[in-house]
Amino acid sequence: METQTNNQTEKENKFPGGNYLLDAHNILGNIVQIKGGQIVGDLGAGGAAYFTLQSAKLVGDQGQVYAVDVLKNVLSNIHSKAQMTGLYNVKTVWSNLEVYGAAKIPEESLDHALLVNVLFQSKKYPEIIREAVRLLKPGGQLTVIDWSDMSPNFAPNQALQLDREEIINIAQNLSLSLRQEFQAGAYHFGLIFIK
Questions:
Q1: Are 116 and 44 in contact (CB under 8 A)?
Q2: CA 189 and chain centroid, separation
Q3: Complete DSSP assignment for the chain
Q4: pLDDT by residue (tens digit) across 92-132?
Q5: What is the largest CA-CA distance in the chain?
Q6: Could you tell me the domains of the chain?
Q7: CB 187 within 8 A of CB 21
Q8: Angle at which helices 50-59 and 72-84 pack, to 10 degrees?
Q9: CA nearest to 92, candidates 82, 107, 106
């Protein structure tokens, strides 16, 4: 019976899908502390949608998760995955996060905005952070997770690595306060800001 319980817990922790570099279940449930009924924006959700789907599970039927991406095929994939896993609280939003005001989500409506492995992909990451702040309600949280070690051969080019202190400075200039720093995985840092 013990083995069956451990296997069940392991499956639940990886639902829906698992990413061995970043444990979405642990990060969102225990560190970020997403709760039932909240509204979450996974900004730059990406094709795997680990953080979108885990957020949808945590907020439940009374909550809402916006999966935002610039690639329409990624959004279609996210929609399909959400439907297949019975998560009907996921809404996909096509948007370029580098453009202030572009995301068609009500301003100041999000309890949590997530930027997971997004900022290193753009030279306009200050604009992306600014757009995330626009969507957060007062008291809402912005979680930034990005690469801290790009030396492994599976990581992006090291020239793309961001300076964590620069991200903190940008956020503080946008009137966010740093709530917590955490190690998001072996190769990622995490920052949680409060608006």
A1: yes
A2: 13
A3: -HHHHHHHHHHHHH-S---SSS-HHHIIIIII---TT-EEEEET-TTT-HHHHHHHHHH-TT-EEEEEES-HHHHHHHHHHHHHTT-TTEEEEE--TTSTT-S-S-TT-EEEEEEES-GGG-TTHHHHHHHHHHHEEEEEEEEEEEES---STTSPPGGG---HHHHHHHHHHTT-EEEEEEEEETTEEEEEEE-
A4: 999 999 999 999 999 999 999 999 999 999 999 999 999 99
A5: 53
A6: 2-194 (3.40.50.150)
A7: yes
A8: 40
A9: 82
Could you read off the pLDDT of 134-178 as tens digits, one per residue? Answer: 999 999 999 999 998 777 777 777 777 888 999 999 999 999 999
- Regarding beta strands 90-94 and 188-194, do their DSSP bridges make them parallel or antiparallel, or are they unpaired? unpaired
Q: Return all residues near 29 (Cβ < 8 A) that are at least 6 apart.
A: 54, 58
Determine the residue type at 53: L
Side chain identity at 38, as an amino acid letter?
Q
What's the number of CA atoms in the CB half-sphere (13 Å) around residue 147?
A: 18
